[in-house]
Amino acid sequence: MVRQIQERLRATQSRQKSYADRRRRPLEFEEGEHVFLRVTPTTRVGRAVRAKKLTLRFIGPYQILRRVGLVAYQLALPPVLSNLHDVFHVSQLRKYIKDPSHVVEMDEVQVRENLTYEKRPVAVIDHKLKELRGKSISLVKILWDAATGEATWEVESQFKKQYPFLFSGKPIFGDENSYLLGGIVT
After folding, report:
1. Half-sphere exposure of residue 136, counting CA atoms within 13 Å on the CB side?
2. Over the stretch 6-45, which tens digit does the pLDDT of each residue have?
3. How many domains does the chain have?
4. Nearest of 29, 47, 48, 42 to residue 95 by alpha carbon
5. In the chain, count of helices (H) and strands (E)?
6. Quick one: where's region Disordered (predicted)?
7. Pick from 96, 152, 168, 184: CA 20 to 30 A from residue 51's CA?
8. Range of the domain at 159
9. What does pTM read for this prediction?
10. Contact 39, 51 (CB under 8 A)
């Protein structure tokens, strides 16, 4: 009776193991490959990364420095994650597939000593006259960043003093305050 129960228990265990093993696959990485790191409380990465409502499930990619044992890898972590141990189990890693669209080119920005930078206008998009308390004020729409399309309305007379290279000498509306804009975009 006991032997029969043990045999059935072994058969049930092997059946369940075969079901579970269908999903499992051995993960192996090479030195120099890049992987993502899972953000979970067990990896303690969640404490190093700011907790917000929409937290990331994986962070990285990080380069594998070497294999430690059969199922662990040492990663090259940035200084921000220096409080973490740099060896992780294979279950906490996901392979990174290189894609050129993941690379974002940075614009060169010159930062001043007080950590501010000057935005330079790209072109003048539009021109209009606005009536305020019986006076007409000439406004120009300035394109600040061609990539994002960020544009604002500015007072033309003040803007001409700061950036005269955007304006040429042809009047648009016939008065001395309105000129054909040198960098006009249509």
Report:
1. 9
2. 999 999 999 999 988 887 777 889 999 999 998 876 556 6
3. 2
4. 29
5. 3, 10
6. 1-23
7. 96
8. 123-181
9. 0.46
10. no
